[in-house]
Amino acid sequence: MGDRVYDVIVVGARCAGSPVAMLLARLGHRVLVVDRSSFPSDTVSTHYIHQAGLLKLREWGLLDEIVDAKTPALRKMHYAYRGIELNGFADPVDGLDAVYCPRRTVLDEILVNAARRAGAEVLENFTVSDVLASEGRVTGIRGREGDGPEREFRASVVIGADGFHSTVAKKVGAELYNVRPAAGFIYYSYFSGLDWGLHHKTGFHERWFGSWPTNDGLTMLAVICTRAQLKDFRTDVEARFQAVFDDVHPDMGAQLRDSGRREEDFRPMRYPDNYYRRAHGPGWALVGDAGYHKDPYTGWGITDAFLHGELLAERIHQGLAGQRPMDEALAEYNKVRDEESAGVYDFTTTLGELTELPPFFKATMSAMSASQEWTNKMLGLIGGVVPDYEIYAPDALERLYDDAGVPEEERVYDPAA
Questions:
Q1: Strands 198-202 and 184-192
Q2: Distance (Å, rounded) from C-alpha 37 to C-alpha 16?
Q3: What are the Cα distances from residue 123, in Å, to 13, 71, 109, 146, 236?
Q4: 390 forms bridges with which residues in the sheet?
Q5: Can you give the residue ranges of the FAD-binding domain (predicted)?
Q6: Omega before 407 within 30 of 0, i.e. cis
Q7: Could you say which of 88, 179, 250, 341 has the lowest number of CB atoms within 10 Å?
C-alpha cells in the first residue's frame, strides 16, 4: 500500500469521509481512507438524520442496513419553542415516511463498510501527523498506524473529513469566516424505561431537551443550556440534567425521575463556535465539520455531511475525469456548499441562542402551529425536503397568515424585523 499513488486520500472515515470515499470508488477512482479510530466505535453526535439525509442513504443503497440494525422508525415529531408547539410530521417524500436516529457505532460501521465494498482501501488506527506538499500544492499525507513506523501516501487530492479539530485544515491553513459564537453546551446519555418518541423542546429559561429512540431499545436524552449555566451544571450533572426536564416539561420530568434508567455515562460537549472554513485549495478539500460547523440544536451535522460529501465527490470526479480543471471544480464545491447551507446556518444559529424568537420567526411559527398542514410543511422545511420559499415567499406568507386568521397588524413579513 505504501508505494501506491492514489487519486484521492480521505482523512476521516465517519459520516463525511466514508460517503465521499464510497462514491469516488464507485466511479472507479483509487481511494485511500484513513482514520485514527477503528470501527465500530462511538463518537459524540446528535444521531438525528433528517429526511434529506435519509434520501441520500436510500439512493446509495444503505438505508435498509440502518433499518435492519433495528433502528426505530420515527413518524411523529413533537417540537416546541417557548410555548409554540408543532406536533406532526413532514409529508412523505418518494415514499420516505420516517426518520431514524442510529447510534454512531451502527451508522459509521455501515458507512465505512460501504466504502470498502466500493473498492476504497481503509486504514484504521492511522493518525495523520502532517500533510505533504510540493510547489505549493498538497500531494499526500504522513502518519502512522498505531505505534508503527511513519508512512507516507500520495494522491492528486487530499480530503480532510476529520472533524472540527481537523489536522488537514490546520496544516493547510484553511481560514475561518462567517463565525458566530457558540451559544451553549450539551450533555446526553442513553436511557431505558421510557417510551417518549421524538421530542425537541425549548423552554423559557434558555434550556432545551431532546429525546429520540435509538438502537438496543434505548432512548437518547440530551440537554442544551447556555454557556453561562455551564459552571453550575458541572457541580452536579445528574441533578442539573434532571432539572432541565423538570423546568421545560414537568410531566416528562416526573416520568424521567420515576421510570427512566440511565444506562451509560453522560457525554458532555462544549462545542466550538459556528463557522465556515475555506474548503478548498491546491490539491486539498474539506468536508463535514472540518469545513463547516453549526450548533447541534437542529441536528443537521450528519445530513450536511452526506449532502456535501456527495457534492464534493461529484466535483472531484469532474476534475479527475478531465471534464474541468480540478481547482475550478473544488472552488465551485465551496461556493455551492455555502449557498445551499446558508438558510440552515442562519436558522440554527438564531434558534440555538435559546432566547426569545425574533418577531418574524415568532409570528410565522405561531401561525403554523394553528394548522396541521402548515405544521407538517415547517417540519418538512426543518427536515430539508420542503424548500423555504413554500413558506417564506411573500404569497406563501400571505396564505399562512390568512389560514391562521392572524390580524393584519400582527403579521410580520421581514425576516430582519
A1: unpaired
A2: 15
A3: 9, 27, 13, 11, 40
A4: none
A5: 6-347
A6: no
A7: 250
How many domains does the chain divide into? Answer: 3
φ, ψ for residue 14, nearest 5 deg = -95, -140
Alpha carbon 344 to its chain's center: 11
Amino acid 1: pLDDT: 47
Q: Dig out the grid coordinates for 103 from the structure.
A: 447510534
Contact 333, 344 (CB under 8 A): no
3-state DSSP percent of the chain in helix, strand and coil, to 5: 40, 25, 35
Q: Contact, 110 vs 140, CB < 8 A?
A: no
End position of a domain, from candidates 269, 285, 319:
269
Residue 378: domain span: 359-410
Report the predicted TM-score, pTM, of the whole model to 2 decimal places.
0.95
- Distance (Å, rounded) from C-alpha 141 to C-alpha 151? 8
Q: Collect all residues with Cβ–Cβ distance below 8 Å to 20 and sequence separation of at least 6.
A: 8, 10, 159, 161, 287, 309, 310, 312, 313, 316
126 neighbors 253 (Cβ within 8 angstroms): no
Among 195, 386, 207, 212, which Cα is nearest to 299's?
212
Q: Indicate whether 94 belongs to any domain.
A: no
Distance CA 215, CA 190 (A): 10
Question: Per-10-residue mean pLDDT for the chain, 417 residues long?
Answer: 81 98 98 98 95 97 98 97 96 95 98 98 98 97 96 97 97 98 96 97 96 97 96 97 98 98 95 96 98 95 97 98 98 98 93 92 96 96 92 95 96 89
**Per-residue pLDDT at 270:** 87
Here the cell at position 220 is: 437518547
Q: Is 314 helix (H, G, I), strand (E, B) or coil?
A: helix
Burial status of residue 332 (CB atoms within 10 A of its CB: 0-12, 13-18, 19 or more): middle
To the nearest 10°, report the CA torsion of 332, 335, 340, 345.
150
Q: What burial class does residue 95 get, using C-beta atoms within 10 Å of its C-beta: 0-12 exposed, 13-18 middle, 19+ buried?
A: exposed
pLDDT of residue 3: 55
Predicted pLDDT at 56 = 98
Q: Which three cell numbers stand for residue 227?
A: 454557556
Does residue 135 lie within any of the structural domains? yes
Residue type, 309: G
State which amino acid sits at residue 314.
E
Task: Assess whether 365 and 342 both reside in one domain.
Answer: no
Does residue 163 sit in the same domain as residue 210?
Answer: no
In a domain, residue 244? The reply is yes
